[in-house]
Amino acid sequence: MGHTEADLAQVLHTGPFHLALRAALAVRGLPLQRVQHHLAHRGIKVGVTSLSYWQQGARRPQRPESLRAVRALEDVLELPGNSLIRLLDAGEGGGRTDVERPARSYRSLVEASGAVEQLLDDLDSPADGGLHTVGHHERVRIGSGRELLGRDSAHVVRAHRDGTDRYLAIHHGDPGCDPARVEVSALENCRTGRVRWHGETGVLVAELLFDARLRAGETYLFGYGFKDGTGGPSGEYVRGFSFAGGQYVLQVHFDEGALPVRCRRFAQATTGAPRGARTELTLSGRHRTVHLVEQGVRPGIVGIDWDWE
Fold this sequence. Notes:
With 309 residues, the chain is α+β, with helices and mostly antiparallel strands. 26% of the residues lie in helices and 36% in strands. It has a 6-stranded mixed beta sheet with strand order 4-7-2-1-9-12, with no helix packed on it. Strand 5 and strand 6 (203-214) form a beta hairpin. The protein is globular and about 60 Å long.
């Protein structure tokens, strides 16, 4: 559905920020590469990746450089002064009292999103990496001290442009995580490239290099893992999706000496949105695991959280 000037005026008034930015881009008819070009002429460097994630609500501009870019966007998109900044100041979902609070604080998630944004820009990551996910099976391990020991992924992707030869994997540890001590493993059909981390938020981004350059339409299967164990007690595992994709399977395995009393799956539209689609999960007695299956993922967040005694 196309956006009109009236639609734009309405969403600039009501928010949220990402919908207002998306409407402005649609009404002005500017592709993200062109917007990036206009910002560069104003002396502001921002990646197409960041612009794409901002308009999807997958990330939220927080750093001073990002906020400067938002003010410049108001000029580039011919919007009233402070119209976008005001929506950021208001916060997403501000004023609602019936929102269930996530296990991690909203502020910590926002700060982590800003760190991811910075690290991806440092690695010159395109908006989607040139890949679509066909299938992703993720196994998470929780240790005897209730800590996130690590996770492994079996990932199948399809290239949608020629020459794609890498994937950027993101790890966000629990509070107290030291990303400098997190180990990255290239398990199958890939090797580890550059690794960047942000100590304050416990975020790490690892470049996984494929054994071949893919042609558009080709699929590729690869495996990788993160060994953590550096953070405090874990109460959830979440996975964000910026683009629609194929099947996603999340399996969480608990140590026999630290079993939760309750597990639930959930979904969120964005980081600041309320958690919905709540479903109780039964912990298997012998294998001590719970899992969820998303047959076709959509942009947003899915995950599993749990309660300790």
